[in-house]
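Re: the request from the purification team.
They wanted to know what the chain is likely to look like in 3D before they choose a buffer screen. I agreed to run a prediction and write the result into the notebook, where they can find it.
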Amino acid sequence: MFKVLLKTKFKIIANLNLGNISQVNKTTINKENIENIDLLYQNQKVKLKEIFSVEISKNNKTKNEIMIKGSNEYFNYLGYSWEKNILTTDSNVGCFAGAKMKSGKMVLNGSAGDFLASEIEGGLIEVKRNAGDYLASSLEGSKVGMRGGQVIINGNVGKFSCFLMRRGLVIIKGNVDEMCCFQMIAGTVIIFKNVKKNLGISMKRGTIILMNSKVQLEKKFVKSGSINFNFLDLLKNYLTKNLLLNDLKKQKFVRYFGDKNIDGLGEVFVKEKL
């Protein structure tokens, strides 16, 4: 297996479409193949070698690693339809990162723009800082959002996160803006801090776990009683073992059902106040 280091040759100051970088998952790893991948910069077709220098070395892992240095908010479509391998950046990225991802792993050492992990089908994406609007949601014109996989956001998230989410797991360690889980179909979302209004509107099924006991749900969710964390032990063990998430401790939650305005069967668990 190989480690591929891509370093920007100059500061990117306009939209750079990096969707074709995912071709490294389907081609023989060598300098010529990678340097001649087609990209779009300022709406003009360019070769990857015009934007990045390429260094290739062997690693001792079971997957190839693609590392990008010099990323910023103009890096769009990075990891589009990504699969199998590991993709990392040293800083921020733009919109549509990890959209339609199938497998593998992405680690973004900064913040991500809108539509991160849109319609993701599998794999793991971790963002070290914040994410914009429409996290793990559907792309324009589509009726299904996130379809599988796992997303971890260590910071805050914008509006309409998990819109039309069907499967998968999203963990948000910061605050969440309005309209989270709008028309959620299924899947699991864990939120650690504050949530703005209109959480779970038109939610059909799925599970939302709120670790902040101060969050107030709207009347469209009906309380059904208190429950121990035991029912989530399998999820807790999985998160601890596979995602190294140790923030979930055994405690009680208040359970709600909704959105009752549409006879929804979604579940919301709010950590019980001590």
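For the purification team: The first strand starts at residue 2 and ends at 8.
Please add any questions underneath this entry.
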